[in-house]
Design goal:
By secondary structure, the protein is an alpha/beta fold. Helices cover about 35% and strands about 15% of the residues.
């Protein structure tokens, strides 16, 4: 019998997918307190586990020391030295397969995630579409853990963490977190799953009338400038984009009363702290398994599926078919505000 069990979890990217591992891993460490857990991910994403002192991280740099096959061999060798007793591949892509293959050579067995790729293709194709709800990504992560030997009950653990916000940050923002604060992340990696800013302005205007404080989240120069424009336009809005470190943004997100986001990483960042999340969906759909953790169906606002029967057109939102360019306009700002108001009541 193994006295000291050490589980190695590999999930290199992307931010939203790594964030989705956090609630599962938090359930794991709560339900298996004697288990040592190490997460292997990109350095930036390792910050997502900063509030979990029980979790160790290994930062991967695929641009430098871990670049190419030789770099992945070096990574595998360093992971081997950690003496893991169990390995879970939460990613199952070429890089993680190569690393796990090297670890196999070094004497380690591993279990990999079943992403349900064929079922997702059936869900997103336009001909002979099979419109069925697929297994949630969180459950797929839990399946890997169970096959590894560690059963996790995602319905039986505590998830509600508010991180301490530095007083200097509080003073700079002038936000009263004792009063309702809503976060809005209006952007997405791909345009087909982004709510038009003209409509988002109407949502913000209505929320401002309800006296909610609003923090705007985003990244990249273009988004920062657009959020600054919204901040200048609406007194209730404060843009935090580009002003603070990622760790500070996580502190702010953890103290929100609600996050409004697209099908994007920001929704998952909020959900991993137990924050309520309202999501707006365009080319994608919750049935693909990427709805934020532990959120109700009513919090996932969908386009008119009778008017756009080919939805979803892709898993990641990077594909849009002719005639579906205005999918998002079938979602009225009033319906968004209504859902938010019900959640905030």
């Amino acid at each position: 019998m193994i006295k000291h069990q050490h589980l190695l979890i590999i999930r290199l990217s992307a931010m939203g997918d790594v964030a989705m591992t956090v609630p599962v891993i938090e359930a794991l460490i709560q339900q298996h307190p004697s288990l040592k857990v190490t997460v292997v991910s990109k350095a930036f994403f390792c910050q997502l586990f900063g509030h979990l002192p029980e979790v160790n991280t290994v930062a991967v740099n695929t641009e430098k020391e871990h670049k190419g096959v030789s770099g992945l061999w070096r990574l595998a060798q360093s992971l081997h030295k950690l003496k893991p007793t169990h390995i879970a591949d939460f990613h199952n892509v070429l890089r993680s397969k190569v690393v796990c293959g090297f670890l196999k050579i070094l004497g380690h067995d591993y279990v990999k995630i079943d992403k349900g790729r064929k079922a997702k293709k059936r869900l997103t194709r336009t001909e002979n579409k099979v419109f069925l709800k697929l297994r949630a990504t969180y459950d797929r992560y839990a399946d890997v853990l169970e096959k590894t030997g560690f059963y996790v009950d995602l319905n039986a653990f505590y998830l509600d963490r508010q991180l301490a916000i530095d007083q200097k940050v509080r003073d700079e923002l002038s936000v009263d977190f004792s009063q309702p604060v809503i976060g809005i992340a209006p952007f997405a990696a791909h345009e087909p799953k982004q709510y038009p800013l003209t409509l988002m302005r109407k949502v913000i205007a209505a929320l401002q009338e309800k006296d909610y404080q609003i923090l705007l989240f985003g990244g990249g120069e273009t988004e920062i400038q657009q959020l600054k424009t919204l901040e200048n336009e609406f007194p209730a809005c404060i843009s935090v984009a580009g002003r603070f470190s990622f760790s500070v943004e996580l502190q702010l997100i953890s103290n929100l009363d609600l996050m409004l986001a697209m099908d994007s990483g920001n929704g998952h960042l909020a959900a991993m702290f137990g924050v309520r999340v309202v999501t707006i969906w365009g080319a994608t759909h919750p049935y693909a398994g990427f709805a934020p953790f532990n959120q109700k169906n009513l919090q996932q606002i969908l386009p008119d599926l009778e008017r756009y029967p080919f939805l979803p057109t892709s898993v990641y939102g990077n594909k849009m078919i002719t005639g579906y360019e205005d999918v998002m306009t079938s979602i009225s700002p009033e319906s968004v505000v209504e859902v938010i108001s019900e959640e905030m009541a």
